[in-house]
Every structure is written in structure tokens, then in C-alpha cells.
Specification:
The protein has helices at about 1-25, 30-40, 50-60, 60-70. By secondary structure, the chain is mostly helical. It has a single domain (about 1-70), classed as Serine Threonine Protein Phosphatase 5, Tetratricopeptide repeat.
Amino acid sequence: MMEDAASAEVYALSELGQSLISAILDGKSLTEIRMLIDSAPLWFQDDDGWSALHAAAKIEDETLVRLLLENGAIWNAGRHAVLK
């Protein structure tokens, strides 16, 4: 039962992380992105190794990069950071 709860939590966090990356790449408003930053894990990397910070850098949004870093985005993470 405990494994099911842990799996569900990891899945939910992964979905939030993916939503944040997608919102950034899709050009959603800063207000929408801020709401996701408040709930999404900033350590999340998708299957290709992309994080929200990568997405912000790709679209060259310095304000968003700074916002992510100020909120705890990991700037020097290796591929697929793992929550322990």
C-alpha cells in the first residue's frame, strides 16, 4: 500500500514538472508559470533530460531563468536528478 502511495506521489510530481516545462515552451503567461513554479518540482527532468530551467534558457527568457533559480531550480544537475 505504501508503495502505491509513493508511486502516485512521484507520478503526480512528474506530471506537474512536465506541465511546467510545457507551459514555458508553449509561451504561457508569467502568471500561469508562477502558479506552476509554486507547486511543481523544479528538480524534475523529462525523459530527454530537460528541466524547466532548460526550457527557460531555450526560449531565452532571462526573467524566467532568474525566477526559476530564485525558487530553487537546480542549475548544475546531471541528467535525471532523483528525489531521495
